[in-house]
């Protein structure tokens, strides 16, 4: 697709201090993207900003209000900063296991890449208007979904889980129709790269081997340079992605995070959590929980996420076969090498998951009985749909002398007591002080996660013009492992009405 001519942009006279644009993805060429301007939101206003994301970029604390930055106008699509080259990237992918053909940034614009104290970072506007890849869509995001993505991006970061970041949400009275008429918003996302598995699938499927190689070389050179030293750099890249994806999935499973739409175009080549739509954190522990109301077959259920990620890696491996062949013909040996490259996903995930469960249980070292102890604990939780976050957090306070805080969460007390007796014997083998064990567990088991009802409260307030709850909730989520007694209400059991909340692909 050819680039669309940019309209004349209203550029401020003063360049924001410290913004040095690289635009390396733009330099790859027009086969990778379409250059175009955003469609400005009318009457924009700030909804929320993240001080932490701004610090990541090295920006001053008053960046959002500085007259010379004109940030509100830029991040609502009304202006561009000098040096920025807005574009929408093209990719393809498998959606719900079915080849969907060409996709692309249907409502996102990459503003470009800037130098920061933490390395180059890309800035992207989500909800900035229609692009050539919108596929009958309006290219807009609504306030509801933008607040959800903003809060969860930042919450995941503070949980220590690799993720794209969210700098700000800008709102507008512009009406947007989804299931009902809502108002528009734009969320500014930040990441070292927004390249997905689907970018590779696109060029492989459309028979563009040179573009496929250019993309792979770009990713290796900019993000995984160690792969260049391998005998087969492309197989090494595939293995690196497989390992990163494995540890990411272990992170998700450990905190009870459900992504909701694990399509190949929604998995990051850097192993970041990307594209927050119908996500959810588990309330009652149900391994079969499906957070996406649009996922009628339950493909992306919580317990299936690790296997789906491996399926997606197979799709990526298939796309990379021409590269792994290193200029030769794709043969059975090429396929074997690709499969060998993604095979480490299995043991990497298993080892990472086991390590996270040991930390959550407060175990020191490794013993043969640890896997069974953890599995039986999860089964006990699943049988009674024990609240995932609260039960794990309370377990840190458990001792044979003080069992009630966690024991009271289970109706089958004998089953809990039997497991707790095994747990006590295992802890005794470590010989650690109780305080040390509890401290470790409190650093592995968050007290605060972004439950759907907390997000819904912030959304409803914002839809009524009160953005304070979004900012307050963000501050709580920035310290997920701390007690924060002044905010304990955010850590309580979800109310009954939370069970009626539904999130779908429009979320």
From TrEMBL:
Query: EC top class, in one word?
Result: transferase
Q: Which UniProt keywords apply?
A: ATP-binding, Magnesium, Manganese, Metal-binding, Nucleotide-binding, Nucleotidyltransferase, Transferase
- Does the entry feature the keyword Cytoplasm, yes or no? no
Catalytic activity of the protein: L-seryl-[protein] + ATP = 3-O-(5'-adenylyl)-L-seryl-[protein] + diphosphate; L-histidyl-[protein] + UTP = N(tele)-(5'-uridylyl)-L-histidyl-[protein] + diphosphate; L-tyrosyl-[protein] + ATP = O-(5'-adenylyl)-L-tyrosyl-[protein] + diphosphate; L-tyrosyl-[protein] + UTP = O-(5'-uridylyl)-L-tyrosyl-[protein] + diphosphate
According to its UniProt record, which residues of this chain constitute the active site?
Answer: 265 (proton acceptor)
**Record-listed E.C. numbers:** 2.7.7.-, 2.7.7.108
Query: Binding positions for Mg(2+)?
Result: 266, 275
Cofactor(s) for this protein? Mg(2+); Mn(2+)
Q: What are the binding positions for ATP in this chain?
A: 104, 106-107, 126, 138-139, 189, 196, 275
What GO molecular function annotations does the UniProt record carry, in alphabetical order?
Answer: AMPylase activity; ATP binding; magnesium ion binding; manganese ion binding
A Pfam family the protein falls into: SelO
Q: Which InterPro entries match?
A: SelO (IPR003846)
Q: Which family does it belong to?
A: Belongs to the SELO family.
Record's NCBIfam families? PRK00029.1
Function per UniProt: Nucleotidyltransferase involved in the post-translational modification of proteins. It can catalyze the addition of adenosine monophosphate (AMP) or uridine monophosphate (UMP) to a protein, resulting in modifications known as AMPylation and UMPylation.
Matching entries from HAMAP family are given as: SelO
- This one is known as Protein nucleotidyltransferase YdiU
Q: Which organism is it from?
A: Methylibium petroleiphilum (strain ATCC BAA-1232 / LMG 22953 / PM1)
Gene behind the chain: ydiU
């Amino acid at each position: 697709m050819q680039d669309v001519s940019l309209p004349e942009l209203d550029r401020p006279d003063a360049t924001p201090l410290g913004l040095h644009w690289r635009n390396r993805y733009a330099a790859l060429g027009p086969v990778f993207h379409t250059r175009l301007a955003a469609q400005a939101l009318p009457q924009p206003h700030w909804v929320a900003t993240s001080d932490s994301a701004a610090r990541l970029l090295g920006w001053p604390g008053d960046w959002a209000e500085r007259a010379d930055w004109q940030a509100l106008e830029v991040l609502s699509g009304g202006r561009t900063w000098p040096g920025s080259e807005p574009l929408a990237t093209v990719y393809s992918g498998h959606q719900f296991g079915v080849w969907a053909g060409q996709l692309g940034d249907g409502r996102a614009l990459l503003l470009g890449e800037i130098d920061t104290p933490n390395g180059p970072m890309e800035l992207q506007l989500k909800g900035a208007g229609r692009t050539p890849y919108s596929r009958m869509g309006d290219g807009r995001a609504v306030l509801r979904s933008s607040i959800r993505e903003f809060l969860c991006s930042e919450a995941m970061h503070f949980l220590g889980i690799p993720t794209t970041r969210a700098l700000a949400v800008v709102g507008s009275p512009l009406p947007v129709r989804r299931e009902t008429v809502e108002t528009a918003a734009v969320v500014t996302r930040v990441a070292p790269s927004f390249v997905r598995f689907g970018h590779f699938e696109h060029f492989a499927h459309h028979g563009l081997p040179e573009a496929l190689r250019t993309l792979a070389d770009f990713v290796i050179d900019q993000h995984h340079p160690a792969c260049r030293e391998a005998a087969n750099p492309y197989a090494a890249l595939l293995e690196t992605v497989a390992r990163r994806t494995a540890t990411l999935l272990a992170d998700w499973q450990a905190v009870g995070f459900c992504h909701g739409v694990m399509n190949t175009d929604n998995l990051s080549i850097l192993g970041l959590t990307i594209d927050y739509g119908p996500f959810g954190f588990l309330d009652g522990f149900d391994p079969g929980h499906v957070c996406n109301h649009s996922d009628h077959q339950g493909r992306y259920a919580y317990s299936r996420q690790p296997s789906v990620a491996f399926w997606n890696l197979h799709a990526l491996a298939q796309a990379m076969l021409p590269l792994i062949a290193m200029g030769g013909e794709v043969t059975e040996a090429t396929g074997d090498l690709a499969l060998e490259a993604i095979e480490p996903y299995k043991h990497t995930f298993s080892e990472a998951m086991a390590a996270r469960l040991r930390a959550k249980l407060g175990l020191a070292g490794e013993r043969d009985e640890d896997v069974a102890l953890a599995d039986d604990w999860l089964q006990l939780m699943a049988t009674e749909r024990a609240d995932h976050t609260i039960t794990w957090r309370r377990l840190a306070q458990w001792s044979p002398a003080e069992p009630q805080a966690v024991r009271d969460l289970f109706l089958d007390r004998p089953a809990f007591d039997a497991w707790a007796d095994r747990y006590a014997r295992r802890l005794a083998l470590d010989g650690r002080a109780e305080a040390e064990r509890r401290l470790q567990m409190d650093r592995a088991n968050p007290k605060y996660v972004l439950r759907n009802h907390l997000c819904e409260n912030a959304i409803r307030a914002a839809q009524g013009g009160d953005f304070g709850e979004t900012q307050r909730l963000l501050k709580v989520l920035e310290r997920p492992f701390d007690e924060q007694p002044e905010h304990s209400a955010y850590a309580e059991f979800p109310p009954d009405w939370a069970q009626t909340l539904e999130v779908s692909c429009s979320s």
